[in-house]
Design goal:
By secondary structure, this protein is mostly beta strands. It has a single domain, classed as Jelly Rolls, CATH 2.60.120.
Length: about 150
């Protein structure tokens, strides 16, 4: 029997409200529009991974080819913010599930993302063709974004 990998050494949950993220991500059918940054300073947490939850809705059904994504831009050793992501700036991108569909509020999730030492997190509306609105429906309806740092253990 294999040994299960458990989520241990969890740090405090990192949260952001809809207004802190910028309230909406504009409609685009090419490239992406980006939220305001949420900083994750992992220097004291020493967590290896993170799970991310995002709550929001589209004004109308998004295009099937688009995606909601999380962009990670690392800071330097002095904590200086990196470049704001754009179509010409490469960062690490992760795609939320489920795929965008419909118009009701959904909770999107990404699990087990490698967590850098110090970085900024951006939410990307990548080519969905519809405006995405952040909804404060997580954490007792107080937040639109939850990030849980953790490390595996047995």
């Amino acid at each position: 029997m294999s040994t299960p990998i458990l989520r241990q050494n969890q740090g405090s949950v990192i949260v952001a409200t809809a207004s802190a993220l910028g309230s909406t991500l504009a409609s685009t059918t090419t490239n992406g529009t980006y939220s305001s940054a949420t900083r994750i300073n992992n220097s004291s947490l020493a967590a290896l991974l993170m799970d991310v939850w995002l709550a929001g809705s589209f004004g109308s059904s998004p295009a099937g080819a688009g995606a909601l994504q999380l962009a990670l831009i690392a800071r330097d050793n002095a904590g200086t913010i990196g470049p704001t992501p754009s179509s010409s700036i490469l960062g690490k991108f992760y795609t939320f599930t489920p795929s965008p569909s419909g118009t009701g509020t959904l909770v999107y999730k990404i699990e087990a993302i490698p967590l850098p030492y110090d970085c900024d997190v951006y939410i990307v509306n990548n080519s969905t063709g519809q405006t995405f609105t952040f909804q404060n429906s997580l954490n007792s309806s107080a937040d639109a974004l939850l990030i849980q740092p953790w490390s595996p253990g047995t």
